[in-house]
Specification:
Elements: E1 3-8, H1 20-25, H2 27-40, H3 44-49, H4 58-78, E2 85-88, H5 92-99, H6 105-122, E3 128-134, H7 138-145, E4 151-158, E5 161-167, H8 168-180, E6 185-188, H9 201-211, E7 223-224, E8 231-232, H10 238-245, H11 252-261, E9 264-270, H12 275-283, E10 288-292, H13 297-304
Parallel strand pairs: 1-2, 1-9, 2-7, 9-10
Antiparallel strand pairs: 3-5, 3-6, 4-5, 7-8
Helix pairs in contact: 2-4, 2-6, 4-5, 4-6, 5-6, 6-9, 9-10
Length: 306
């Protein structure tokens, strides 16, 4: 039986102007942007719709991305397009949980605002780094860095693209070893911290405290978590998984393989960019990937999914 999944990108996909056409054309989207502005005491229109220096700062990026992706999700819902399951890469997992009915949209936006601040502030600038490793098998990367202190895998994105994370010097040394070991290329990433490393454990602990004040709701559909790449149907697991996710590897390739094994054959990438399509085409080139990033996508999606 054919299944449809909504998938949400993570930090790095943001772009100035994202969501502006949804704000102009949809009362539901406009309502969410305005409510997020009030809830965070931030002008979300200025942050998302105009060129500015703050959009790429972690403490602002995360709230901007989640607001935009959930505003687009509102429009899809109005068009009668609903998923059988959801997933999101790192930050995108918060959209996945909200779209699955597990938390209110504004709670998700407030939570990622806190998450962004914690992730940015937990490790002083310059002490942590991340590096993409191109065209090297995951098991070879794990073997080479396995005995090294201060470095680990951050993201299993797709075959041929793995990201490592940790202390800056350790990541730089690991990058050299990986090139010597056969990696086609290593690319140091322009990020503000060692995301998805043990250095972020304190951020996860503080995030868990923040979630202790939140009300979660029973899931209406399942979502797939980054932490285990397995389906979550019990909302009681979500707080612990989101707290762990900050410092645990993102198992995106494994998550997509799990969804495909569960019968998903059509994916809708919601939000700016086409990063997730690129990953999916390397995981399974035969799966259909549609996009919901600009207003013009809405009619096309409704036709293709009718």
């Amino acid at each position: 039986m054919s299944k449809l999944a909504f998938i949400y990108p993570g930090q790095g996909a943001q772009t100035a102007g994202m969501g502006a056409d949804f704000y102009e054309n949809s009362a539901a989207a406009r309502e969410l942007y305005d409510a997020a502005s009030d809830a965070l005491s931030l002008d979300m229109r200025e942050l998302c719709f105009t060129p500015n220096d703050r959009l790429d700062l972690t403490e602002y990026t995360q709230a901007a991305m989640v607001t935009t992706c959930l505003a687009i999700t509102r429009v899809l819902t109005e068009r009668g397009i609903s998923p059988d399951m959801t997933a999101g890469l790192s930050l995108g997992e918060y959209c996945a949980v909200a779209a699955a009915g597990g938390m209110k949209e504004l709670d998700a936006i407030r939570l990622v605002r806190k998450r962004g601040i914690l992730m940015q502030d937990t490790v002083p600038a310059g002490e942590g780094a991340m590096c993409a490793v191109i065209a090297m098998a995951a098991e070879d990367i794990e073997r080479i860095i396995g005995g090294m202190e201060g470095v680990s895998v951050a993201n299993y994105n797709c075959p041929g693209q793995i990201v490592i994370t940790g202390k800056t010097k350790a990541v730089e040394e690991a990058a050299e070893r990986l090139k010597e070991g056969g990696a086609k290329r290593t690319v140091m990433l322009n990020v503000s911290g060692p995301f998805h490393s043990k250095m972020l454990l304190p951020a996860g602990e503080q995030l868990a405290e923040e979630m202790g004040h939140m009300v979660f709701s029973p899931l209406q559909i399942p979502y797939v978590t980054n932490v285990t790449a397995q389906t979550v149907t019990d909302i009681g697991e979500t707080k612990g998984l989101l707290a762990r996710q900050v410092s645990a590897p993102v198992r995106w390739q494994q998550s997509m393989e799990h969804m495909i094994a569960e019968g998903v054959d059509t994916f809708v990438e919601i939000g700016p960019g086409r990063t997730l399509e690129g990953f999916l085409k390397k995981i399974d080139k035969d799966k259909r990937v549609l996009h919901a990033s600009i207003w013009e996508d809405m009619d096309r999606l409704a036709q293709e999914l009718s």
